[in-house]
């Protein structure tokens, strides 16, 4: 394998790792919101709003794969 091919593969793996971390973070935020909704003593609206706001900011982020999307 050439050096260029190896660098391209490494770059692809780095992007894949970044996307994986991003997906995990989105699932964590969604899970936190669901946990709060399932709170037996009534969900706290300010906590729920915070989780939802963080989730939407992460979803709307224009930064994917290590490059700014247009």
Give a quick rundown of the structure.
It contains two helices and two strands; from the N terminus they run H-H-E-E.
Bin the strand percentage.
Answer: 5-15%
Instruction: Give the count of helical stretches.
Output: 2
* Mean pLDDT over the residues: 83
DSSP E strands, number: 2
Count of folded domains: 1
Residue ranges: pLDDT <50 for 5 or more in a row?
Answer: none
| Distance N to C terminus | 33 Å
Q: Helicity level, as a percent range?
A: over 70%
Tell me the major beta sheet: 2 strands, antiparallel
- The arrangement of helices and strands along the chain is HHEE
Backbone CA Rg: 17 Å
- By helix and strand content, what is the structural category? mainly alpha
GO molecular function: transcription coregulator activity
GO biological process, one term: regulation of transcription by RNA polymerase II
Organism: Carex littledalei
Family: Belongs to the Mediator complex subunit 11 family.
